[in-house]
Specification:
Order of helices and strands: HH
Helix content: over 70%
Distance between the termini: 72 Å
Number of helices: 2
Largest sheet: none
Length: 55
């Protein structure tokens, strides 16, 4: 019976970890989308060119 209990405990840990990772991914996607909306019209290449030309 103790082997079954150990297996159940391991499964609970694995399932919990997967749900936590999914939540972190969803939070990262929301943050990325929010930042992307704020940076419309901005291109990294132009910004780098400005910095290089100002030297």
């Amino acid at each position: 019976m103790s082997v079954i209990g150990a297996i159940e405990k391991r499964l609970e840990i694995l399932v919990g970890a997967r749900l936590r990772d999914r939540t972190r991914l969803e939070d990262a996607i929301v943050t990325r989308d929010r930042l992307r909306k704020k940076s419309k019209g901005w291109t990294g290449a132009e910004e780098i060119r400005k910095w290089r030309n100002s030297r």
